[in-house]
Amino acid sequence: MTTRNRTMFLGLALAATFAAGPAASQEQRASLYHKFEFSPSLTSVILNSHIRIDSDDGSIGTDVDAEDDLGLDAVKWEPRFAVRWRPGRHHEIEGGYQFARRGSEHELQRTITVRDTTFDAGLNIKSNMQTDLAFLNYRYAIIAKEKTQAGVGIGTGALLFKTAIDALAFAGSNDVTYSASQKLTVPVGAFGIYGRFIMGSSWSSEVDARIVKLQIDRFNLQFTQLNAAARYYPSRKWGLELGGGADAAKVTFDKRAGGGESAPSGRIKYSLTNIRLGAIYVL
Question: What are phi and psi of 3, to 5 degrees?
């Protein structure tokens, strides 16, 4: 069974499991106003990345497709962690971290240039790419009823980008003849709306949508976030979450004046779609 089929099967199985759960109970276990929540998740992330790192003299680099050109997996299982704290009925702060790390060995089908290094077609390369996302969100509930909550949200965070490409002496070799690498911390942020709803004694659902287009320092950023989840609480202290989300970023960045080799120009087009199963611990 392929990775994509396993992901689809997991999603359908979890949905069926949730649907078969207790439909009614006298005890109200689901709530929209928990003081504290910790949510670790296992996510099936679907990745699509294009990167361009220009040379130090300003020459435009190759727009590299990470999946097609470098042979990196488009689907991976990765952990995700989130913590929510509600200091008041109308206020919530959420912080979290989504891992997204890949590596592969692959034969190049075309010539690419990354910064000042050219890798010729037919060359065996070893690639690693990290596109982890750290996030911090603030939400204000304009509507704060017992079974309905809706308001606005402001998100900030960072795309922690790191890539390395090594030219190998031959397939499977540990001998690196030359290499290129780049590390960037891209600030991200977005503004939008959210809603949460109680559906019976043990169920809740939620949805978020945020978008932004702005200039931060040398980064020109367009960033979109979408998220939806269903939650089932078998007890007051524990819950299960089946959710999905999408993060998409288009970032162009200028060469920093006086930055030297550590601050080239370039562009990153990146999307991460996730299907996740998580646990929820409530305080």
Answer: -60, -40
The predicted-structure confidence for 129-176, as pLDDT tens digits, reads as follows 999 999 999 999 999 999 999 999 999 999 999 999 999 977 877 888
- 36-86 confidence digits (pLDDT tens): 999 999 999 999 999 999 988 878 999 999 999 999 999 999 999 999 999
Domains of the chain: 3-282 (2.40.128)
**Helix (H) / strand (E) containing 190:** strand 176-198
Q: Of 62, 66, 32, 63, which Cα lies nearest the Cα of 46? A: 66
60-63, long-range: CB within 8 Å, 24+ apart, which pairs?
A: 61/113, 61/114, 61/115, 61/266, 62/111, 62/112, 62/113, 62/114, 63/267
Per-residue tokens: 278: 């998580």
* CA triple 129-132-133, angle to 5 deg: 150
CA pair distance 222, 188, nearest whole angstrom? 9
Least Cα distance to 125 among 71, 59, 187 occurs for 71
- Half-sphere exposure (CA, 13 Å, Cβ side) for 85? 5
User: What letter does residue 79 receive in the DSSP assignment?
Assistant: E
The answer for 80, left when phi > 0, alpha when psi is -120 to 50, beta otherwise, is: beta
The DSSP line for 210-256 is EEEEEEETTEEEEEEEEEEEEEE-SSSSEEEEEEEEEEEEEEEEPPP
CA distance 273 to 77: 12
